[in-house]
């Protein structure tokens, strides 16, 4: 048995400064000239260190850039973290004055943030600034979609100060969008001193133990992950890493969120759930193989993956769980019978998109709570898999593999699974990678699979050109 140390046993630490409780949320959105959101982040983030976020969906191309924090919601209670956040957010919106004539999703007051993978795991100081849920209502937010750009400003003010605060914010917007945004801005190149993989031998032993357990018991799948520590003499800035991810992983969800001096950043191919009106999208992404530069060899690898019993089983368990989790919340659902291939630059996966029509009472937070963790990151059965992960990994995954994303004041939103990611902490970075273990897993192969999954973040952190 292991001793679990809880981050905090207090039930409700959703933060709100006392003197702000009688203030109203004023939010206004205006259309601005067309700007490149990546350059906008790059040129303005240095002035909002510790208080920024970035999001890009490869699917609809939506980009969100948050600068400054009007209110942060941090939750350290393991129980009810989804419901609690939703309640406090709804209360905030209940009295808000919102001036947003645009229907565009992701405009107006919006929460951006992430939930830790497992609030009951051991806690490491590394992840402390992120709690078990950290969400921001940004002060300034750029939304870019289909060639249109919008700026939203969120202010918590006494009613009599609203007018002056708005005028001031209008001026700040002008400054934000007038910074020179230069594509070829030169970065001092970062330099990696060394990298160390966390106890590979012990990890392999854990993999063997878990695979044996799967063979002998009713546990069907457990996802075990491991981490790698990078040490830089000259660490890259988050905006550089993001720029690299933007160019190296154009088909992944790209995200970054800062808390104090730490920044969690990544490029994940895996959607947890998207809600657009009552239409919901989820996906099973599990089962992996490498890529090959030679197109014929690459096709062969894909063919191997899509006919491989072990990978198909790993994948099917995820589809099954998603179907069961969504069924009570959906009027209808479409789930293809067979997976297709999803190729990222370094890895190909088995992929089954799931589409449904949600019952009108369903919120995105409810969907996230029901889905997380899918067996792509946890296992089957979920509770037993989580126990094994705690016992065998003996580390705090923090936000890695947890849901990260946004919801706007209309209830639209999208959450992804924060894999292919890393935490930047001064001159260090911690990368995480995991793999789904089933009865047929070969420990050495699984080790290779996790090595392959470190690769995209390593390249983005090193800034190496392909
Ligand atoms: C756990 C990770 O990836 C997950 C595990 C996969 C697998 O084992 O085949 C594939 C995709 C992801 O759902 C990771 O990238 O860290
Ligand atoms: Mg796998």
Automatic annotation (TrEMBL):
<feature type="domain" description="Chorismate-utilising enzyme C-terminal">
    <location>
        <begin position="202"/>
        <end position="453"/>
    </location>
</feature>
<comment type="similarity">
    <text>Belongs to the isochorismate synthase family.</text>
</comment>
<comment type="pathway">
    <text>Quinol/quinone metabolism; 1,4-dihydroxy-2-naphthoate biosynthesis; 1,4-dihydroxy-2-naphthoate from chorismate: step 1/7.</text>
</comment>
<keyword id="KW-0413">Isomerase</keyword>
<dbReference type="InterPro" id="IPR019999">
    <property type="entry name" value="Anth_synth_I-like"/>
</dbReference>
<feature type="binding site">
    <location>
        <position position="449"/>
    </location>
    <ligand>
        <name>Mg(2+)</name>
    </ligand>
</feature>
<keyword id="KW-0474">Menaquinone biosynthesis</keyword>
<keyword id="KW-0460">Magnesium</keyword>
<keyword id="KW-0479">Metal-binding</keyword>
<feature type="active site" description="Proton donor">
    <location>
        <position position="270"/>
    </location>
</feature>
<protein>
    <recommendedName>
        <fullName>Isochorismate synthase MenF</fullName>
        <ecNumber>5.4.4.2</ecNumber>
    </recommendedName>
</protein>
<dbReference type="Pfam" id="PF00425">
    <property type="entry name" value="Chorismate_bind"/>
</dbReference>
<dbReference type="InterPro" id="IPR005801">
    <property type="entry name" value="ADC_synthase"/>
</dbReference>
<feature type="binding site">
    <location>
        <position position="314"/>
    </location>
    <ligand>
        <name>Mg(2+)</name>
    </ligand>
</feature>
<feature type="active site" description="Proton acceptor">
    <location>
        <position position="221"/>
    </location>
</feature>
<dbReference type="InterPro" id="IPR004561">
    <property type="entry name" value="IsoChor_synthase"/>
</dbReference>
<dbReference type="InterPro" id="IPR034681">
    <property type="entry name" value="MenF"/>
</dbReference>
<dbReference type="GO" id="GO:0008909">
    <property type="term" value="F:isochorismate synthase activity"/>
</dbReference>
<comment type="pathway">
    <text>Quinol/quinone metabolism; menaquinone biosynthesis.</text>
</comment>
<comment type="function">
    <text>Catalyzes the conversion of chorismate to isochorismate.</text>
</comment>
<dbReference type="InterPro" id="IPR015890">
    <property type="entry name" value="Chorismate_C"/>
</dbReference>
